[in-house]
Amino acid sequence: MKKVTTHYKVSIVDINYGGHMGNDKALTIFNEARINFLEYFGYSELSIGGDVGIILSEANIKFRKEVLHQDELDVEVWITNMEGVRFTLNYRAIRRSDNIEVFNGTTLLVSFNYKTRKISPIPQEFLAATFEEDNFKG
Predict the structure, then answer these.
(1) Is residue 11 in a domain?
(2) 65 and 95 in contact (C-beta within 8 Å)?
C-alpha cells in the first residue's frame, strides 16, 4: 500500500459555532490531501494519464474526536479497491499532539476522459505508480 501524508493546520475558518471543526471541513481536508497524493505521483485530478482524470462519486466520513483551532493533523491517503473504472481513496487524520485518529473516511473516484466526456478505464501508468498491482481487480 503506497501512502502519502499531508500536513494540515486547523485554521479559525475551519471552526464552527460549537467551537470545533465543522463537519464540512473534513471534505475540504480530504480534497487537499487527494490533490497532494496525486501530485506526489505526478498527476492531477484532471489527468491521471492521457486525457483521463477523476470524478468524485461518493464520500464517507467517520468522526472520532473533536478537532480544535490550531490542531495539527497528518492526513494519510492510500488507494484500495481498484476495479476497472473506479477506485477508493482512504483517508486517516491523526492529531500530531497526541497521535490520535480524529476522523477518517473514503472517497469513491471514477476515471473520466475529459475530452470525450465519458467514463474510461484507469490508465495502467497510474495503476503502476500508485497502487500495489496484487490488489488490482481489473
Answers:
(1) yes
(2) yes
Q: Is residue 137 part of a domain?
A: no
Domain holding 89: CATH number? 3.10.129.10
- What pLDDT shows up at residue 136? 36
Is the overall model pTM greater than 0.85, yes or no? yes
Q: What is the mean pLDDT of the chain?
A: 93
**Residue 138: pLDDT above 70?**
no
Number of domains in the chain: 1
**Distance separating alpha carbons of residues 18 and 51, to the nearest angstrom:** 43
What domain range is 62 assigned to? Answer: 4-131
